[in-house]
Amino acid sequence: MSLSYQHHEKSDNPRFEIQNVPLPDLGPNDVLVQLAVTGICGTDFALATGKLGPTRRILGHEGIGRVVALGSSLNKDDIPIGQRVGIAWIRDVCGRCQICLHANGSENPRCLRQLHSGRKFDGTFAQYTIAPARYLMPVPEGLPDEVLAPILCGGITSYKALKNTGATPGAFIAISGAGGGVGALSIQYAKAMGYRVIAVDAGEPKRQFCLDLGAEAYVNVASERDAAGAVKAATQGKGAAAVLVTAGSGAAYNASLNMLAPFGTLVCIGIPPPDQLMSFHPLQFIDFGYRIIGSCTGTQTDLLEAIEFVERGLVKPKTLLAKLDDLNRICRETAQGKVTGKYVIKL
Ligand SMILES: [Zn+2]
Ligand SMILES: [Zn+2]
User: For the structural domain made of 2-150+317-346, what CATH number should be given?
Assistant: First the structure.
């Protein structure tokens, strides 16, 4: 039997409960992973509301654990028992869809089959999970579990989004939603990659938090009537070479375009509810050469690169340790925008 978080009651206030469920069936090419910790990501709560489509009952996609059993087609030369692995959002890729083929056979996290944790696979809010061996993600020894877990989604997403900006080191990057889990990691990665960070978020308590992480300035959208103007002022009138929108609200997206410098890139990461849209006039793009791109987690290579920043001490995930029973409270606080930093659950 495996102790798992299950969520039910699709609504704006989803509830999680702990249940004992049988261990999942192990296919011939699967491995069984015993999880030590799991991070909690805003996407889990968005999934739990049911607004992002059908889900499995067990969510979670930032698990760190070890392989404890192999499927019948595998042996210890393929994967050693005890191998430390990360169980992230992408559990597998099909290799055959239009996106996988476009990636020339190499992995692509946008595989159209969306073989995601919590969607097509039971997630990591559980003591055990299964993973297909061919997409297993070994992670290095050394760093504590709770430090590594946030890199599996928040860390790799931040790092890949910054790579995708194409901005020159030394350029200003604005991070919208900077006080949240992904935002806090984005501040640290951006600084470590040589960028100058303007943190954008709502409320004064997040100001010192963002400055302590390495932001040069903080723009409080709750009190600042012209947030874009404040970003321009903080960047010596230039505007930001890129804005990373990690906040999941349409309002955050709408405010961000005017923060850009000419030829700047707006990078979409945060996922607003389906009814919150971004609106713009095409002339902004024609006149200023803005780009809008979406960034979607990253590849296994991106993950290993992102982990190296943590190993070198340049990125220090700020984690708050929690227990199984705390999930409903954390869910509420996240929905209310009250969480600064990243929750990790010891399993
Ligand atoms: Zn996530
Ligand atoms: Zn595919």
Answer: 3.90.180.10
